[in-house]
Design a protein that fits this description.
Two copies of one chain form a homodimer. Chain A is of the alpha+beta class. The first copy, chain A, has helices spanning about 1-15, 180-185, 190-200, 240-260, 275-285, 320-325, 335-355, 370-380; strands at about 25, 35-40, 45-50, 55-60, 65, 70, 75-80, 85-95, 95-100, 105-110, 110-120, 135-145, 150-155, 170-175, 205-210, 270-275, 295, 325-335, 360. Chain A has an eight-stranded mixed beta sheet with strand order 12-13-15-14-16-17-18-19, with helices on both faces.
Chain lengths: ~375, ~375
C-alpha cells in the first residue's frame, strides 16, 4: 500500500509539474525553438539540452532559478508568472553566463543578451497594426569630433516619401547604459509605436533619430563603462562632453543636410532612458538654442537635480525657463524604486520654484523596456504642439 | 643540467605560445571585449573565464580546438592563421554549444551565432570609405499569401532622396539556409559594397531588396529546415512555391508602390546564396516576365541543372533564352569543392547547348561570407547594362 501510495503521489507530482498544454514559444525565440514557452498565466518554462553540464540556471533580470536535469540530459525549469513586456535573461552553465541558444539576441549591458517578450493583453500600442508604416533607416555620418564613421537609425514617418514638400520636426532618442543605437530600433519598437500614434493622429509626423550616445575623441578614455554602485555609496552619473559635441557639430548638420528636417529649436526634441536620460538632459540643457522639448525616462540623474547648480542654474529663473522649454517630461516605472525616488525628487524641486514639467509613472513596470515603450508612447504625442 | 635544460625548453615553449604583442581585438567583438584577438599573421586567440567548467572548446566553422585552463580559471587557445573574411564560430562549454559572450551575434543556422571578421589586406571593397552613402531601410509589407506582416531591408542608393525624378532598377538578393533578411544587411555589408561600386561608377544606382525567403501559408509546414546530408546520399534542394507567390503577389507590388522603381523585367534582377541560389533560380526562372538578370552564388542547386528538365526546360532553346536573359551569373568559392563542382557541372551543361553565362570563382574562399561579398561585388556591376 505504501508503495502504491508513493507511486500515486509521484504521478500526481509529475502531473502538477507538467507543462500546461496552452504554452506557446516566446515570440523572441529564434526560428524553430520550442523553448522558452510562455503559459497562459505568464509563467515561463525554459529548457536546455546539456547532458555533460553539472549545474544550469536561468537568470531573468535579477532572479536566478536552478534548472533540473532529466535523465536524457535535458535541463528545465518553470518560473513564476512574469510582468508583461521585454526582459533580458541569460543562462548560467557550470558558472558561465551565456546567451540561451534558443533566443534572439538583444544588445544590452555591452553584450548580446537573450531576451523574452512576455505577452501584454492590456496594451497593444506596440503591436504591429494595419496602418501606414514608416521606415527605420540606417544612416551613416562622419564625425569630425570623434574622427570616425558613426551609425544612427532614423525613423521616417509613413508620408515621408510621398509628401515631398513637407519638412519634419526632429526627435533625438537615446538608449540606456550598455545598449546602443539598436535598443530603440529593436527592443523599443519605435517604428511601430510611432506608426500607430501617427495613424491615430495622436502624434504629428516626425523624424526620430535613434543615435548611439557613446562617443570618444582619439586619445580619450572610452565612455563605455557601466556605473558600479557599492553598498552605501551613491551612484553619480557623469556625462562626458564629447557626445554633445558630436550632436551639435556632426549629427544635426548631417541630418539637416540629408533629411527634410525643420531646423529650429521649436522643432527639436531630445530624450533618453536611464543613462541616456542623463545624456539627453546634459546635451539638451546645454544647447537650449537647439532643443525645446526634453524627456528623462527612468533617469537616475534626476536624483541629483539641484535648482541652483544643475545645468548652469537653468531652472533658477522659472518664468524664463518655462517660456523656453515647451516640455520637460519626467518619467519612471513604479517598480523601479530608486528611479521613481529620483523622478519624485526632481519633480518636487522643480515644483517648488514653479518650473513646469509633465510627470509620467509607468504602472507596475521596472527598469525595463515596457517602461520605456510607454514613455515614448506618452512623450511623442506631446511633441511639437507649440 | 637535465633540469635546467627542461626549464629552458619550457620557457621557450611558453615564449612561442605567448600572445604576440601585435594582437588586436576583433572588430566583431562587443564593446570592451579584449578577446578574441587577431594577430598579424591572422592567427586568433580566444579566451573565456570559466573556473567551474571541465572542458571548453572553440569551434570555427568546422574545426574544433580545445582550450587550456589557466590556474585562475581562464581558458584560452590560439588557433592557426585564418582566411580573411567573416567566419561563424561558437564555444562549447561542457558539451553545450553556445555563443561567445565576447562576440557580436549574427543570425545563421537558425540561431544567433558568434562571428569573427578576419582582416583582409588584399581587398577593401567592403570597407567603409569617404563616399556618398546610401541607406538600408526597414520596410514592412503585408503578405496576402502568407497572411502576415513581413520585413525586408531595402538598400537605396546615395542619390535616392535628392534625385527625386529618377526611378531605379530593382535587385532582389536572398540569404542562405538558416539565415534571414539580416544576412546581407549585416554579414554581407551590402550597403558598403554598393556605395563603393556606385561611387566608382562601376555599378548603376539601384535598389537592392534584401528579403527573407522563408514564407509559409497558414497550415503549411515550415520551410525553415536545414538540409541533412547523410553519408552516401545526395543533397537535393527543394524550393516550396510559397515564396515565389509572395514575391509576385506581395513584395514586387509593395515595392513598386512605395519606392520609385523601374517595373519592367529589363530592370529587375534576382540572386541568392547557397539555398538562396535555389530560391532565386526557381523564382526567377518561373517568372521570366518579371526578371531578366539571375545570379547563383554557391548554389548546390547547380549540381542538378538539367537542360531538358530544369525550370520547365527553359534552357532547351538557347537562342531564345539568351535573348530573354541579360545575365546568368554562376559563382562559387574555390575552397568549397561541392559547390564548385556544382557550378562547373551547370556551366558545362549550359555551354554544351550554347546558353550564355558569366562564371565567377572566388579564389581561396569557402562556403562563407567573403565568397558572397565578392559575388555581390562582381555581380552588381553587370546589372542593368542592357
Amino acid at each position: 500500500m505504501n508503495r502504491l501510495l508513493c507511486v500515486a503521489l509521484l504521478a500526481c507530482a509529475a502531473c502538477l509539474a507538467q507543462t500546461p498544454d496552452d504554452a506557446k514559444p516566446a515570440s523572441t525565440n529564434v526560428a524553430n525553438a520550442q523553448y522558452p514557452r510562455i503559459h497562459s498565466d505568464l509563467s515561463v518554462t525554459f529548457q536546455l539540452k546539456a547532458p555533460d553540464a553539472r549545474k544550469v540556471q536561468v537568470q531573468v533580470v535579477g532572479d536566478k532559478y536552478d534548472m533540473t536535469r532529466a535523465e536524457d540530459g535535458t535541463w528545465s525549469v518553470t518560473i513564476p508568472p512574469q510582468v508583461p513586456g521585454f526582459h533580458y535573461y541569460t543562462l548560467i552553465i557550470d558558472g558561465v553566463q551565456v546567451v540561451d541558444p534558443a533566443s534572439e539576441t538583444f544588445y544590452g549591458s555591452f553584450w548580446e543578451s537573450s531576451g523574452i517578450e512576455i505577452p501584454n493583453n492590456a496594451e497593444d500600442f506596440y503591436q504591429i497594426k494595419d496602418v501606414p508604416h514608416g521606415e527605420i533607416r540606417q544612416f551613416r555620418y562622419y564625425s569630425t569630433v570623434a574622427q570616425t564613421w558613426r551609425r544612427a537609425f532614423i525613423y521616417t514617418p509613413p508620408d515621408y516619401d510621398t509628401n515631398l514638400k513637407a519638412r519634419y520636426p526632429v526627435f533625438l532618442l537615446l538608449h540606456g547604459g550598455g545598449e546602443d543605437e539598436r535598443g530603440w530600433f529593436i527592443q523599443g519598437k519605435t517604428d511601430i509605436i510611432m506608426d500607430n500614434l501617427i495613424a491615430e493622429k495622436k502624434a504629428v509626423p516626425m523624424i526620430v533619430v535613434i543615435d548611439n550616445m557613446y562617443a570618444q575623441k582619439p586619445g580619450e578614455n572610452s565612455p563605455m563603462t557601466m556605473p558600479v554602485v557599492t553598498p552605501g555609496s551613491v551612484l553619480r552619473i557623469t556625462v562626458p562632453p564629447t557626445y554633445g559635441e558630436v550632436v551639435m557639430k556632426d549629427l544635426l548638420p548631417a541630418l539637416d543636410k540629408h533629411y527634410r528636417t525643420l531646423t529650429d529649436r521649436d522643432h527639436r526634441a531630445i530624450a533618453g532612458l536611464s543613462m541616456g536620460a542623463a545624456y539627453a538632459m546634459q546635451v539638451g540643457m546645454s544647447n537650449l538654442a537647439a532643443f525645446s522639448y526634453f524627456g528623462s525616462f527612468s533617469g537616475t540623474v534626476m536624483r541629483d537635480l539641484n535648482i541652483e547648480t544643475s545645468y548652469g542654474g537653468v531652472f533658477k529663473n522659472a518664468a524664463e525657463f518655462n517660456k523656453k522649454c515647451h516640455l520637460l517630461f519626467i518619467a519612471a516605472g513604479t517598480a523601479e524604486q530608486s528611479r521613481m525616488d529620483a523622478a519624485n525628487h526632481a519633480r518636487g524641486e522643480l515644483a517648488k520654484v514653479g518650473v513646469k514639467f509633465v510627470p509620467f509613472d509607468s504602472n507596475g513596470t521596472a527598469h525595463e523596456w515596457l517602461t520605456w515603450r510607454r514613455d515614448l508612447h506618452q512623450f511623442a504625442p506631446l511633441l511639437f504642439r507649440n
